[in-house]
Write a structure and sequence with these properties.
globular
């Protein structure tokens, strides 16, 4: 009887430990997926000049992140909300770090040579130092927010510039989408 209890307890402990290990691996894989998807989203938004496609990319990105984060099982609603908040903060930090690297590299190449490739020189080399050093990150972000204006082109003669204020308001709306989309998708999908 004692031997059966020991075997049962050992099996129960091993199962419990495996569940914790599997849960940890699942959480880390979701985090890595969000990081890789954030890099991909930032690059696609940077190289794509068509604003309606960027809006579709943004909505798709928000939905994929929502689905990825909601695959995690949380025992507590508070932990789920904290997880969503941390994912949104990480996503925003990565996306705007990559975007600011792209803009600074593009601006430097245009200013120095008068033309720029789709991936400017120094773009990929500057991403990691920018994301790891907050002072570099803030300098590049400040430069991008001050000088990068969103514009729409209607052929070669007609260009509508939104200006710095409206461009930054659009960026703020994009960031709010990262934070609020899980709640909006939950409400929309709950009605179905």
């Amino acid at each position: 009887m004692c031997l059966v209890a020991i075997i049962f307890m050992t099996y129960f402990e091993a199962t419990f430990k495996m569940k914790k290990i599997n849960s940890f691996i699942h959480t880390i894989s979701i985090l890595l997926f969000c990081i890789i998807l954030s890099f991909l989203y930032a690059v696609l938004i940077d190289i794509n000049p068509v604003l309606p496609l960027n809006i579709i990319l943004w909505g798709t990105f928000c939905y994929i992140i929502y689905r990825a984060v909601y695959t995690q099982k949380w025992n507590n609603a508070y932990l789920k909300h904290v997880s969503l908040l941390l994912h949104a903060l990480l996503i925003t930090y990565i996306i705007y770090g990559v975007k600011s690297c792209y803009f600074v590299s593009y601006y430097n190449e245009m200013y120095l040579s008068g033309m720029a490739d789709i991936f400017p020189i120094g773009y990929t080399d500057s991403i990691l130092p920018t994301l790891l050093d907050p002072s570099i990150y803030l300098e590049k972000l400040d430069f991008m927010l001050g000088w990068n204006e969103i514009s729409i082109s209607f052929g070669s003669d007609r260009i509508v510039h939104f200006g710095s204020f409206l461009s930054n308001a659009i960026r703020l709306f994009e960031i709010l989408g990262f934070f609020l989309s899980p709640y909006l998708f939950t409400q929309i999908l709950a009605k179905d």
